[in-house]
Design brief:
Elements lengths: L2 E5 L2 E5 L4 E7 L2 E7 L2 E4 L4 E7 L3 E10 L5 E12 L2 H7 L15 H22 L3 H21 L2 H6 L1 E13 L1 H114 L4 H15 L10 H14 L1
Antiparallel strand pairs: 1-2, 2-5, 3-4, 3-6, 7-8, 8-9
Helix pairs in contact: 2-3
Amino acid sequence: MADVTRRFFLRHLRGTPTFHVRHQRGGKLVHDGAGLSFWYRPLSAVVSEVPIDDRELPLLFHARTADYADVTVQATVTFRVTDPALAAARIDFSLDPDTGRWRSAPLEQLSGLLAELAQQPALDLLGRTALAAALADGVGQVRDTVTAALTDDPRLADTGISVVSVRVVAIRPEADVERALQTPTRESIQQEADRATYERRALAVERERAIAENELQNRIELARRTEQLLAQEGANARRQAEERAASEAIEAEGRAARERVLADGRADAARTVGVAEAAVEEAKLAAYAGIDRSVLYALALRELAGQLPQIGSVTVTPDLLTNAVQAVRRLG
């Protein structure tokens, strides 16, 4: 909006680049353009300010399809004033010379005109289209139809308004209808999720079965190897026992043979010693054959004395001497 400053009986207007200002005095055009700044007298001046920037008009309206279903259309229309002089002549954009504000609501009037012109072709199109087709392809069709209708509308051209673009955001049915339409999709998604769950469970069962079979095969292989180990250990033990028995038998035979050899040697030595002793005794007897008896007694006493234990001292009593002499006499 324009900035108006008061100085006594004069007013100063300072415009902006996005507003076109028209200043008339006495029916004559004094100032005309965007971004102007000038002085004027409020009693004789007629000032109009027309926006020339792009404006957006959001639209939200209801429509009925060919199968009597209510839908909500959400769209946005972008427009701008291309001929400010023509727009100021058709719509009241005049300013209060003291405050610089519009005397009326021109933008609301312009928005109402655009809304009516945009809704009419959309309503006609949706009225000939079924709900399923409107939801599937209605956004593009409504956008193209509304754009063509607003571009070719003569009233907008006579007002100096140009439509820049039309955007249709969504076409949505009523909440219960939308939920009903979403049910097949939800069921399909749920079925797909259930199928994936069943497949995952089946795969898990199959993997568990494979793991169990693998464990069983491992246990069987372990048992077979254990059996082989036990058999091999038994064979090794038997072989060790046999070898130990054979070794002990050989050792016993060697020991017995050694004992026999030793026994034979001892027997031969004993026989040799016996023969030698017999020869010695025979020689002794042969030597004693020609010796006197008293000599033999003396030798016998000497031999006997050699066999007696050592006597440190001898006490000879008369009785002992008498008995010895008697014994010797008996021997003589």
